[in-house]
Amino acid sequence: MGLKLWFERGAWASRSAAAKAAAIEPDRVNSIAVIRHAAFGDMVLTRAFLLELRKHFPNAKITLSIVSNYRFCAPEDMVDRVHIAHGSDRRDTSRREQIKQIRALGYHDLFFDLASTSRSAWLCLLNPAKLKLGFPYHHLQRVLLYDAAVLRSDLRFELETMLDMLNLIGLKTDWPPRFDLAGEAIKRERPYLVYFTSASITGKCWPANRFALLVEQLADQYADYEHIVLQGVADWESIDEIMVHLKNKTNVTAMKAGSLEDSIALFKGATLLVSNDTGTRNLAIATQTPTVGIFFSTVPYRYWPRYDCHDVVFNPDGSLPEVEAVACSVTELMQRI
């Protein structure tokens, strides 16, 4: 039994797409390519998509195509092969070598483009497949690159849009999603909350004085909990300014971020994470830890799972959220946990 395109107006397909899909039997799919060029926070969410591929195409070998400058947290444990295209760290790569790297992805029965970038477009153009699916923003990209595509929106959690590609071809996906991150939760003397005050750039960082006031308020409100302020790895991610304000709080602990495995263990054991818009929050989401995200410079909806205990705090005008607004969000989630 082949695949079927299940949509009326909420997606796009070429005239030949239905026939191509019908000719593909899931049990006989031998190879699948998944293109995902993203930083680690977006990369970790891809695990749920790969789990669904394993479930529905049990005999397929899966190749994950990534770029050389975004390799951290790539779910290599969930695929059979990793293809690496040139990234921004290899600007001196010749055009000929770039094309050779792109063509090395090769033929696959199914292509899923979860990147929708200029580089992923070349991967789709220069490598053949029985059926190609994507989620581009522009109609012309759909026509040139794919057999079928789902509509992409900044107003939905992006993982939902990825899974829409599988729903489009008649496959039932789990919700809430599963991520299967290996690792055990760490054990500490008291239950604990984690605060991550940094981000990929300073422009995404809620001010240190507001974080200090937030931790101070919540440390009093949840006095039986340990409150861990997590410091990033870069020099500019110092939490010294915050910790000076909290020096008299005996239930507040400063901690420096460790390895990926250490972070997974920390988040798996946490009651809740409070964080800026950062991949660290996505990692916590993948460990099924409740999160509160603080947004003011980026669109919050793409990073807001509407399942389990997750919330985002933002103002309609994009101004900095007040301390009380974030504290209220934490309180509401703590009551639900």
From TrEMBL:
The UniProt record lists the keyword Phosphoprotein: no
UniProt keyword Cell inner membrane, yes or no: no
Molecular function (Gene Ontology), one example: ADP-heptose-lipopolysaccharide heptosyltransferase activity
GO CC aspect terms: cytosol
Any Gene Ontology biological process: lipopolysaccharide core region biosynthetic process
Keyword vocabulary terms for this entry: Glycosyltransferase, Transferase
InterPro entries in alphabetical order: Glyco_trans_9, LPS_LOS_Heptosyltrfase
Pfam hit, one: Glyco_transf_9
Protein name, as recorded: ADP-heptose--lipooligosaccharide heptosyltransferase II
Species assigned in the record: hydrothermal vent metagenome
